[in-house]
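Example for tutorial group B:
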C-alpha cells in the first residue's frame, strides 16, 4: 500500500499555540493475480416486502444471477430475504459446494410478500455471516426499497447492531432502491458497519449498483487497516481530531503510552482513501526540529495475508514568530480541508431536506459552490499540482450546482437520497475518482 503524508504547514511559531492539519492518502495495490485470493464471504439480504413487487424485485433477481456468475469457487455466498419474517433463501456455503443451477432457481423463486421487518432480515444476515467468517471477515450487503415498519425501527439501535458486527470483522453495506426507502436507517447501518451506502433510483440503477458494490467486495486488496497515532507529548492527545467521519478510540500500547486508534477497515484493489487529522498544538518552548507524533499504519495484504506496518514520524520546525508568519499552507492539504467542509455543508443540507426545507439546502450548496470557485481561481499556475487541484475543485463545484438544482426542482425527500449518498461516500474519505464518478453519473439531480 502506498502512503503519502502532507502537512498544511511544517513551521510553527515559537512559544505560541498553533494548529496543524495532516493529510494522509492511501492507495491500495491492484493484485496481479486474484485467482488464488482467499475466499470472501458475501451474504446478500434482500427486502421482498410487498412494495418490491414488479420491477424492483426483478432487478434484484437479475443482479443476483449476474453476481453468482462472477464469484470464485472459494467464495462463500448466501442470500437472506425478509418481509415480516426473515428466511434463508440460499444457504451460505462456498460456491464450489453449491449446485449453481439450483442457486439460480432459488434466486428466481424469491417473491414479494408482506411488511418490512428490516432488522429481522439484517439479524439473520449477520448470523449467516458469523457462521461463515473467513480469513478476510465477511460482508452483509442489504437491499431495501421501503421503511422498516416491524421489528427494530430505530436507526441508532440498528446501527448499534452494525457496530458490534464490525467489531467481529463483518462489514455492512446498503443499497436503497427507488425513492421510498429509509435513507437515514440504511446510511446508519453502512456508516456503523464501515461499508458503503448507495442510492439506486431506477431498476437499471439497482442492477448496476449491486454489480459495482459486489465487485468491490470481491476485489479487496487490503484488510484490517488501522492508523495509530502516538503523540510525543501525551498532553497533545486531547487536541487530535479527524476531519472525516470515522470511528476512533484510545488504547494503551505495550509501553504503557496512550495511542489514538482510527480503523480504516478494508481497501479495494486500486482504491484511494484520505484521512485528515487535525492537531491543536500547545506552545513549544524550543527552536528547531520537533516531532509531534508517530503514525503507525498496520494492515494485511491480499492475497498473501501478510501483515504489514508503515511508520511515519510527523515533525515540524519551530521558528521565531516573524519567520513563522510568512509560511504558506500546502494547497493540497487546504483543498482537502475545503472539501471536508463541503461535505459538512452537504450534511447540513441533507438535514434541511429531511424537514422539507429545499430552499435552505439549495442555498447552502450555492454558497459552498462559490467558495470552491474562489479557491479554484486562487490556485497559482506555478504549483506542480495546479491542474489536479483545479480539476478536483471543478468537479466538486459542478456536483454542488447539480445538488442545488436537484434541491430546487425535485421532491425534497427524493433529493435527500442523492445528498446522503454523496455524504456517505465523502465523509469517511472513501471518495476516489472511480467511485465518485460511478455514483454521481447515474442521475442529474
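The residue assignment follows.
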Amino acid at each position: 500500500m502506498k502512503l503519502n503524508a502532507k502537512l498544511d504547514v511544517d513551521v510553527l511559531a515559537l512559544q505560541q499555540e498553533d494548529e496543524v492539519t495532516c493529510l494522509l492518502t492511501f492507495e491500495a495495490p491492484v493484485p496481479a493475480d486474484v485467482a488464488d485470493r482467499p475466499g470472501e464471504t458475501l451474504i446478500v439480504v434482500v427486502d421482498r416486502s410487498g412494495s418490491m413487487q414488479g420491477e424492483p424485485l426483478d432487478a434484484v433477481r437479475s443482479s443476483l444471477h449476474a453476481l453468482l456468475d462472477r464469484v470464485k469457487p472459494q467464495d462463500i455466498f448466501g442470500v437472506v430475504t425478509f418481509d415480516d419474517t426473515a428466511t434463508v433463501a440460499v444457504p451460505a456455503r462456498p460456491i464450489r459446494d453449491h449446485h449453481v443451477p439450483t442457486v439460480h432457481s432459488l434466486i428466481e423463486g424469491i417473491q414479494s410478500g408482506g411488511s418490512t421487518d428490516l432488522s429481522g432480515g439484517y439479524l439473520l444476515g449477520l448470523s449467516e455471516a458469523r457462521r461463515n467468517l473467513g480469513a478476510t471477515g465477511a460482508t452483509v450487503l442489504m437491499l431495501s426499497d421501503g421503511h422498516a415498519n416491524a421489528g427494530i425501527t430505530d436507526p441508532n439501535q440498528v446501527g448499534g447492531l452494525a457496530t458490534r458486527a464490525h467489531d467481529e470483522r463483518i462489514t455492512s453495506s446498503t443499497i436503497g432502491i427507488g425513492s421510498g426507502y429509509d435513507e437515514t436507517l440504511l446510511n446508519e447501518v453502512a456508516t456503523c458497519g464501515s461499508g458503503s451506502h448507495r442510492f439506486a433510483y431506477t431498476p437499471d440503477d439497482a442492477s448496476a449498483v449491486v454489480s459495482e458494490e459486489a465487485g468491490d467486495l470481491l476485489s479487496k486488496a487490503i484488510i484490517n487497516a488501522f492508523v495509530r497515532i502516538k503523540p510525543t507529548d501525551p498532553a497533545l492527545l486531547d487536541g487530535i481530531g479527524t476531519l472525516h467521519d470515522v470511528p476512533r478510540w484510545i488504547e494503551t500500547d505495550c509501553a504503557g503510552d496512550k495511542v489514538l486508534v482510527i480503523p480504516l477497515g478494508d481497501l479495494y484493489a486500486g482504491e484511494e482513501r484520505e484521512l485528515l487529522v487535525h492537531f491543536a498544538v500547545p506552545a513549544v518552548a524550543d527552536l528547531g526540529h520537533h516531532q509531534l507524533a508517530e503514525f503507525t499504519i498496520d494492515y494485511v495484504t491480499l492475497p498473501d495475508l501478510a501483515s504489514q506496518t508503515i511508520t511515519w514520524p510527523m515533525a515540524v520546525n519551530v521558528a521565531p514568530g516573524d519567520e513563522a508568519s510568512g509560511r504558506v499552507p500546502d494547497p493540497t492539504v487546504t483543498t482537502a480541508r475545503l472539501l471536508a467542509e463541503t461535505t459538512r455543508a452537504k450534511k447540513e443540507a441533507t438535514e434541511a431536506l429531511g424537514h422539507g426545507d429545499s430552499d435552505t439546502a439549495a442555498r447552502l450548496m450555492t454558497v459552498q459552490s462559490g467558495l470552491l470557485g474562489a479557491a479554484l481561481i486562487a490556485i497559482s499556475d506555478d504549483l506542480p499540482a495546479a491542474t489536479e487541484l483545479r480539476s478536483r475543485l471543478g468537479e466538486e463545484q459542478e456536483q454542488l450546482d447539480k445538488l442545488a438544482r436537484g434541491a430546487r426542482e425535485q421532491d425534497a425527500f427524493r433529493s435527500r437520497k442523492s445528498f446522503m449518498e454523496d455524504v456517505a461516500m465523502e465523509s469517511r474519505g472513501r471518495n476516489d475518482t472511480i467511485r465518485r464518478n460511478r455514483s454521481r453519473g447515474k442521475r442529474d439531480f
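The domain at 2-33+221-324 is CATH 2.60.40.3670 (Immunoglobulin-like). Compare this with the pattern of hydrophobic and polar residues in the output above.
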